[in-house]
Amino acid sequence: MSEESMAAVVLAAGCGTRMKSERAKVLHPVCGTALGAYPVRAARAAGAEPVWVVVGHDAEHVQEALAAEGVGFVRQEQQLGTGHALLCAEKVLQNFHGSLLLLCGDTPLLRPETLIALSELQRTEQAAVTVLTMRLADPTGYGRIIRDGRDLLAIVEEKDASENERRITEVNAGIYVFEAPWVFETLHHLSNANAQGEYYLTDIVRLAREQGTVVRALELADPDEALGVNNRAQLAEAARIMQGRINYAHQLAGVTLIDPVSTHIDASVRIGTDTVIHPGVHLWGKTKIGASCLIEPGSVIRDSRLAERVHVKAHSVIEESEIGTDSVIGPMAHLRPGNVLRGGNKIGNFVEIKKVDMGLHSKASHLTYLGDAEIGADVNIGCGTITCNYDGVNKYKTIIEDEVFVGSGTQFVAPVRIGRDSLVGAGSTIVHDVPPEALAISRVEQKNVEGWRLRHPLKKKE
Ligand code: UD1
Ligand code: CA
């Protein structure tokens, strides 16, 4: 292998005790993506290949969550410390000669440029270890950096630090570049004689000094980058910073965010130019929004595709649906999974739809439930229409062909087919198929009983 080659190891075996969670720490999402996926992607983007992830606590779920990242997994059966964790990767990297980038699974904000700068410093200084450090007003919880000018002497964990050492504000970010295979040979000499009884990776600095090898440090300009997520407060802080970055990138790419601070956009979401997004909007998962859309306050859109010029009015919820060009949704509409709206559609207030395929320019403007329905083009669904699609056991389909006009207050008892260009009279309960161009009406004829109220008064007459 060439000297330029860089591999990476991401430590993700710890249980994250301080999270007080049933789930492993690296599984907690930040802007819709598992915490542990971020350092993996940063390492890749910095040119590291292969990337190995050390898993232990809740390993099955962690592997499942990171399966799509194209990484290899190494088991650390017992969590004996960060040094022991890296040593678990010795076997899979035994033939690797080059720079080994080490990241912790709980630092999601690292930028690839920083990792590249770290590995370049390692190369130009011909160091055995290069440590990423940062200065914090409050260094509590982090390992302290003991220096002599440019030379790094040691990293002291907070629990092992003297009072003087605790006053040091330069801390270990937990990100390193090591020379391999030197690092593995040296890790065998770690001891666990410390306050936590763990094999600290940080002790490798002391060992390197004893061997007289070069140890360097790179100080981060922006300490936010190495924020370690150890508890829920730091999780929220990381999400806030990540959200800021995501939203800023959308703004630079031509998306208007009326109030970026209250706009939640997952890392995986794509948005076209000239789209305007109002406060309190949440865009989740694999959502893709086209150009020139307008998303009004409080709407939540998950795993959906909106074409161009779609207008989503306030407080609508859209899940796993496809919405065609020039459609208007809401206010307060609920699109449950499986809808395909072909374009120019209107789904109005208090309309719930599920598994509906709706042709061009068809509308359901008010107070309606449509489920398991195939609706043609230019169909008007009147207010209060209900598809009765479920008999308690099975679901049935309602098919409404092109240009049908459905009067208000209609129920379709599925399975049923309404032929093209027919009209369904208001208040009908439709149980049989309707042929094309027909009028279907099923309500009972009205009867007026004259003087009935006089004979049945609610209150006694005075
Ligand atoms: C570590 C560093 C500390 C640094 C801080 C930066 C050590 C001893 N300390 O402390 O100097 O300032 O990170 O955020 O390295 N892990 C394993 N197996 C284990 C133990 C941990 O895989 O046996 C993993 C964890 O899942 C986590 C990472 O290593 O992703 C760091 O462990 P954590 O317990 O969070 O270390 P810190 O106390 O934060
Ligand atoms: Ca940590």
List the helices and strands and how they pair.
Layout: E1 6-12, E2 29-30, E3 33-34, H1 37-45, E4 51-55, H2 59-66, E5 72-75, H3 82-87, E6 98-104, H4 112-125, E7 129-135, E8 144-148, E9 151-156, H5 163-166, E10 170-180, H6 182-187, H7 204-211, E11 215-219, H8 232-252, E12 256-257, E13 264-265, E14 270-271, E15 276-277, E16 282-284, E17 288-289, E18 294-295, E19 300-302, E20 305-306, E21 311-312, E22 317-319, E23 322-323, E24 328-329, E25 334-335, E26 340-341, E27 346-358, E28 363-375, E29 380-381, E30 386-388, E31 398-400, E32 405-406, E33 411-413, E34 416-418, E35 423-424, E36 429-430, E37 439-440, H9 452-455
Parallel strand pairs: 1-4, 1-6, 4-5, 7-11, 12-15, 13-16, 14-17, 15-18, 16-19, 17-20, 18-21, 19-22, 20-23, 21-24, 22-25, 23-26, 24-27, 25-27, 26-27, 27-28, 28-29, 28-31, 29-32, 30-33, 31-34, 32-35, 33-36, 35-37
Antiparallel strand pairs: 2-3, 6-10, 7-10, 8-9
Calcium ion is lined by residues 104, 106, 228, 230.
